[in-house]
Amino acid sequence: MTDLPSTLPNSSAQRTALVVGASGLSGSHLARLLVREGWTVYGLSRAPSDEGAGVRPVAADLLDRDGLTRALAQVAPTHVFITSWMRNDTEAENIRVNSLMVRNVLDAVAVHRTLRHVALVTGLKHYLGPFDAYAQGASLPVTPLREDLPRLDVPNFYYAQEDEVYAAAARDGFTWSVHRPHTLIGRAVGNAMNLGTTLAVYASICRETGRPFRWPGSGAQWSGVSDVTDVDVLARHLLWAAETEAAHDQAFNVVNGDVFRWSWLWGRVAEWFGVEAAGFDGQIHPLEQELAGAEGVWADLAARHGLRESRLGRLASPWHTDLDLSRPIEVVTDMARSRRLGFTVYRSTEDSFLDLFAELRRERLIPE
Q1: Rounded Cα distance, 328 and 20, in Å
Q2: In 3D, which of 166, 77, 72, 167 has the Cα closest to residue 113?
Q3: Which sequence positions are flagged as catalytic?
Q4: Distance (Å, rounded) from C-alpha 240 to C-alpha 179?
Q5: 218 with 325: CB under 8 angstroms?
Q6: Tens of pLDDT along 209-243?
Q7: What is the pLDDT of residues 58-113, one digit of tens each?
Q8: Is 3 exposed, middle or buried (0-12, 13-18, 19+ CB in 10 A)?
Q9: Is residue 242 a contact partner of residue 13, using CB atoms and an 8 Å limit?
C-alpha cells in the first residue's frame, strides 16, 4: 500500500475530528488512523466500546437532539466524519431516521463555528438502489459505476443524507466530501454489514460440520468482475479528501484498486479454511438459509475453542452478504476521479480477505 503524501500547507495545524459511528467498521479504523496522524479525535457512538487508544469517547443517541447537543457542548471539531447509519423496516423510515441523525449532528456542532469540512460515508446503493429495491428493475446502471451517474428516480436514504450535508454546508460555510465504498472488508464485532467476517464464520461452520463451502449467490456475481473496499483504504481516502483542497465539495467512489471474480476468490477462501469449495450450481442458496438454526453450532464451537464471541448474530450478517452476492449484474467501480487528484493507495483484495481471517484468529473470534 502506498503512503499518503502531505497535501495541504497547513496540514500540521491543529485538527480536531468528530468521528460519528466510531465503534463501527469504518469509523473505528478511521479514528485510529487519525490518532496516529496526530489529530485530536472524539469518537461518537451510542455505547463507546472499541474506538481505540487515544480516541476520546462521546456517548450519545443521534436521534436525541437535546442529549446530543449536551454531549457535544465541549467538542468543537474542525472536521466531522459521518460513518453511521441505522437500518429500519422501510425506505421511508430509513430516510426519516438517517437524515435526522445527520441533521442533528451538524446542528449540534454548528454553534462552535469551528467546522471546516464534513465527510459522509455512503456506498454503492447510491447507484444500485435502496434495500427494498436493490439491484432491481430495468434502469440498472452500466458498469463500471462512475460518480457522475445521475441519482435513481427512487427514494434513497443516501440521497437524503447527502442533502442534509449540502444544506448545512451552504448555511455554515464548510467544505464536504462524499465517499462511496463498495463492500467493506475489515474487523468489527456487532456490525450490520460485514461480508468478510460473515464468510469466515460460514467457512468455520462448514469445516465444523463437514459441509461444503457452497457459493450462496448468483451466476452474475460468480462469473462477473467485482471489487471491494478495505477499511484501511477507506480510512486513508477520508483523510486524503479532508486534507486535499482539490478534493473538497466532490463525491468519490473508493475501492481497493484491483478487480477479481468470485469464481477465483471463492476457492482461495476455501483453501485458507481447509474446506471443500462448491461453486455456482445454477441456483442461489442464500446464506440466511445456510446459516438458519446455526446459533447453537456456533455457541458450541465457541465454547470448545475459547472464542470471545459466542453469539452468531454479533459476527455474521447473512442478510447483507446475500444482497451483495445475489446481484443480477456484475458490480465494478471506477476510481478515476480520485486517481486524477492524486489518491494512489492500493490494496490487494486477496490480502484484504486473508489478512482479515488471520486477524480474526489472532483475536479469537474464529477458531484455529
Answers
A1: 33
A2: 77
A3: 125, 158
A4: 11
A5: yes
A6: 999 999 999 999 999 999 999 999 999 999 999 99
A7: 999 999 999 999 999 999 999 999 999 998 999 999 999 999 999 999 999 999 99
A8: exposed
A9: no
The span from the CA of 134 to the CA of 155, in Å, is: 12
Nearest to 354 by CA among 272, 257, 261: 272
CA distance 260 to 243: 31
Helix (H, G, I), strand (E, B) or coil at 319: helix
The pLDDT-based confidence of 141 (bands split at 50, 70, 90) is confident
Q: Is 43 helix (H, G, I), strand (E, B) or coil?
A: strand
**63 within 8 A of 102, measured Cβ to Cβ:** no
CA 304, 309, 310: angle at the middle one, nearest 5? 55
Judge contact between 191 and 25, C-beta under 8 A.
yes
- Please name which of 13, 16, 4 lies closest in space to residue 44, comparing C-alpha atoms: 16
User: Are the beta carbons of 23 and 86 closer than 8 angstroms?
Assistant: no
Model pTM above 0.90? yes
